[in-house]
Amino acid sequence: MYKNNQTEDNYDHIDNSLIYTTTNIPGPGCDMNNFNCCPNYVCNCTDSCKTLNCKCVRLVGCNNYDNFGKLISINRFIYECNNLCNCMSSCQNRVVQLGPRIGLRISHNTKGYSLYTDIAIEKGQFVCEYAGEIIDLPEAKRRSNLDSENYIFVINEHVADCVTTTVIDATIIGNIGRYINHSCQPNCMIIPVRIDSLIPRLAIFAINDIKCNEEITYHYGGEGGSHSHNNLSEIKCLCESFICNGFLPRKTGLF
């Protein structure tokens, strides 16, 4: 059975002018109906929610995590068991909601502030979420015009013919995930995870084994590290990877 090697979020910012939040909070333009609405599923499992008999697991069509809490496959989205489910809080389908992993460290390098790990992370393990204010696109545009250096993340989920857009701004109110930098050759990726809200949490998972003292990175363009030159910004990329595109992509996840 998976033993949690994570903890409640006991991290904080290194800048006192910032406000720490452990998970998303509603901001201007947030759809409060979706924010307060729990996904319309409840499992009645008495085991560890390992099979497709679990309604939450069945929504994706396969198990999300193995016995050690690691991703079994890279799904476009995940539904975890929620507070209305009858399973135990230690069930296998509860990972992101348990909080970020221990051993994360904010440090300064040539890119500015970055996030490192003091404990080795295995491929498929959850690192932390990217949390902040949930806003809408008009508010994101307004804030972008006011401050070119922002932490606004836009993610578009494509399901059938529908596109669901989630915008999270961690510029002033955010968690430790705001310190993760871009890399054209990342070791993590973001997957939308729904738990107690129709609005997803942006969960960051390792896509490679990450060594102790290694910087944690993801690709701002999504797809786990797409190298397309489309949709590049004018900001120089400092990742120094062998396949660096030279410029940062726009911080928008495309799924």
TrEMBL record:
Residue ranges that the Swiss-Prot or TrEMBL entry lists as coiled coil: none
Recorded GO MF terms: histone methyltransferase activity; N-methyltransferase activity; S-adenosylmethionine-dependent methyltransferase activity; zinc ion binding
InterPro entries (alphabetical): H3K9_Histone-Lys_N-MTase, Pre-SET_dom, SET_dom, SET_dom_sf
Sequence ranges assigned to domain SET in this UniProt record: 100-221
Ranges that cross the membrane: none
GO cellular component: chromosome; nucleus
Localization, UniProt: Chromosome
Main location: nucleus
Domain of life the protein comes from: Eukaryota
GO biological process: methylation
UniProt keywords, alphabetically: Chromosome, Metal-binding, Methyltransferase, S-adenosyl-L-methionine, Transferase, Zinc
Name of the molecule in the record: SET domain,Pre-SET domain
